[in-house]
Design brief:
Structural class: alpha/beta
Strand order of the largest sheet: 2-1-3-4
Order of helices and strands: HEHEHHEHEH
Helix content: 40-55%
Shape: globular
Number of helices: 6
Strand content: 5-15%
């Protein structure tokens, strides 16, 4: 074992008390805004933890369609996580994580994954629901978030978010350009 690995092991007080990435719930968290981690704090503040709520389990009838739907669902969740990370948030996507070692098709393992995911939800500052489809698992997550008084935000598909962001930036730029033209015509 290298020294770095030994040092990391010494830092773990009780492995049974480990929490999802991002520290304790409520640490530097504000439920009032969508403000991500402020880089000006030089990493001292924890980024806001966003629970990614999107479908995992495909519902299509044919095996080929199920495979395509699963790939689409995974792509949606990964894209959402990438956008959140880029914005300075910490995405919590248990359906991406737990399904890497738990079999979703095995009832007991799926239930265990959902249970563990709900524990991550308790650590989250907000729940962001991506897309128009609400799966059975998502409905459970949304209901639990409401019980915990967590903000639940409904967002479009992640790829649509990028499109809307670009349109917003573009509209702002056009507005600035028109104001500058108006000022130069009056000067």
């Amino acid at each position: 074992m290298n020294n770095e690995h030994l040092a990391a092991q010494r830092d773990i007080k009780n492995p049974r008390e480990l929490k999802p990435p991002g520290g304790e719930a409520g640490e530097n968290a504000s439920h009032d805004s969508v403000t991500p981690h402020d880089p000006a704090h030089n990493g001292t503040a924890s980024p806001k933890k966003i629970f990614v709520c999107s479908p995992y389990r495909p519902l299509a009838e044919t095996e080929e369609s199920r495979k395509v739907e699963l790939e689409s669902n995974l792509h949606r969740a990964k894209t959402a996580c990438r956008i959140l990370t880029t914005l300075g948030f910490m995405p919590l996507a248990p359906h991406l994580y737990f399904t890497t070692f738990l079999e979703d098709e095995v009832k007991r393992e799926r239930e265990n994954g959902i249970r563990l995911g709900l524990q991550w939800l308790e650590e989250a500052d907000e729940v962001w629901v991506f897309g128009d489809t609400i799966s059975e698992g998502m409905a459970v997550e949304i209901a639990r978030a409401k019980e915990l008084n967590k903000p639940v935000r409904n967002l479009p598909e992640p790829s649509r978010m990028v499109e809307l962001l670009i349109k917003g930036i573009s509209a702002g730029y056009k507005g600035q350009q028109k104001a500058a033209e108006s000022e130069s015509n009056n000067g």
